[in-house]
Amino acid sequence: MTEQREQAQLLTSTLHAHAPEVSAAKARRFGAWYVTEYYLRSLVRYGDVILADALGSPLMYILAMGVGLGSLLMGNNTLFDSVGYLTFVAPALLVSGAVQGGVTEATFPVMDGFKWHRIYQGPLVTPVTPAQIACGQILAIVIRLLIQSLLFLGVVALFGAVPSGAAIAAVPVAALAGLAMGLPIMSYSATIREEKGQFSVIMRFIFMPFFLFSGTFYPLTNLPIFLQWIGWISPIWHGTELGRWLMYGSSVPGWLLVVHVAVLLVLAAIGFLLTVRHFRRRLGGD
Amino acid sequence: MPSTTLAAPVVSAVNLTKRYGEFTAVDGIDFAVEPGESFGFLGPNGAGKSTTMSMIGGTSTRTDGTLDVMGLDPDRDGPSVRAHLGVVPQQDNLDEEIKVRDNLYVYGRYFGLPRAYLKEKIGELLDFAQLTEKASARVDALSGGMKRRLTIARSLINEPDILLLDEPTTGLDPQARHILWDRLFRLKEAGTTLLVTTHFMDEAEQLCDRLIVVDHGRIMAEGSPAQLIREHSTREVVELRFGSSQNRAAAEQLQDLADRLEVLADRVLVYADDGEAALAQVHARGLTPIASLVRRSSLEDVFLRLTGRSLID
Which residues contact A104 (CB under 8 A, 6 or more apart)? Predict the structure, then answer.
């Protein structure tokens, strides 16, 4: 009885998918977005974890460094840039959080796509192309970084450490910094055949030094000259300097602002192009 | 049912070749698949079956030859070709952490299918795959057979003209295989063109109207299962087991008995049109096998005949 019904349903269904030509045309235009949709779904699924990650750890830094260490360091006086210590570290923590988020998204989920759960093999046999798979995932990362940074900014504002309305512009800057570091790493992740601890090496020996030596807790110029170069190659420093300018109006020469933006854009662009190229090569089947 | 009209083939390959450096995975094969036909690639692991499937989907570019899928070239129009296809890969790549229903939804979106359509179609496909009760379960809670059926349901979301099935029942227990074959048979009845790779001769016999036997990237034979058996084997086969050390010696004494003899590690195969008569002859010569069996020839015998090796290593 049920068998007959199933068969009848299979044969006489009134529902019909649009023509293959329509699928192909839609995927040509929106294919990357369909991949983004998938990743946003998992973003919702891991929402609580990402939220805890995005807010929890910076919050700890705010309490430990900004509030605790800050009061020890200066009593009632200002220490750097004539602002309260929390105001001074908040942009750095905003940017570091986004960069850490960018690095996280650029490592394990990429391995998951190529190898562990072969997530990419799903869209790969649909009208979606390898380049669109890369772009769609990157777009989802951008959205994640924007949301995370916006939430963080809200928390900092609650602590009264956001004096300027221009601070809202620090949100896309933080996301850009996240891409400037995340995308080059993503392009590397796309070449890894087997994960043998490379990702924790990236966290410990690239992210952490950048985090600690990027003028995060004190101006870069307070470091001995032989360590300052780390800041210059670090997206965290360039992002933080822009963030300080936007969030409390620190004085930065105009040419240097241009340099900060340019460094972030160039790193993100190179990372983007290489990522797309590596996805194409690995999924393209030559 | 194989088409009797002169409709243009939905897939046709001429001199299709794929090389990886020095290694030739697919070595200049020709075939054509008619609309509505169930077409099989039978061969051992490493014969080039999956590579051929990938080239049809345009996810692997060919080294040489021409390939036409629904009038399109997969290398040039990969996305357009794939819009016509449903693909069931050898290894499931479902998203284990999301719900059964959501797996179908996400996949349907890759074809740009609208939400309203997907909502209804998903119900229909879950029904077809006998997974309605599992709609809200996470995929990692499903059995192997259920995952396979879900992968097939997923591949049907765009109502494909052609369904590519790469080793559809490998790793499943016999009961799960039969359920799956039944579902595939229904699709075939509904007019979907099936392209199946398999290294199981029973699967090829069950599902395929016509098949090519492939080995080392080359086509060894082509035809319907019955045709291949008729052309390349005898009607019946006698399987004799004398014990692994005695098989060869016993075979020596049976050389003149049959059209052909195969000595395998564990048994001797005697190819004869009348199996019972051949077995009687064996006994008449004073040979006493530990075990004997008379059976119909199968595609396994065809493969053995053509390559000198058995299908499953």
Answer: A53
